[in-house]
Amino acid sequence: xxxxxxxxxxxxxxxxxxxxxxxxxxxxxxxxxxxxxxxxxxxxxxxxxxxxxxxxxxxxxxxxxxxxxxxxxxxxxxxxxxxxxxxxxxxxxxxxxxxxxxxxxxxxxxxxxxxxxxxxxxxxxxxxxxxxxxx
Length: 135
Hints:
five-stranded antiparallel beta sheet, 3 helices
């Protein structure tokens, strides 16, 4: 993300960190729902299924993050990557964009999982660039 060289709070620096899910996501989820609801919602995304790739950006100064991760939809067997945004301070929401999905039963059909993931990253980076104009 380009910066203008001024105060880092005025031009936030986003760091990519894909190794593990940031604790911020679990904390925000628990703060917004009951513990039981948080466990159900987060089961696949945060704890159980780490076979799929994730992409995360974190801004420590703003206490904000952006996540691209698999999400379960009602269209089984179609799978998709969702984009989630934790704005400065509190809460999080799903970013609505073009669906970035693939069919695991047809791994060579387009879009593939890798193509869907790449498209979701491009959409997430576009969202982040626009969102930072308003923070």
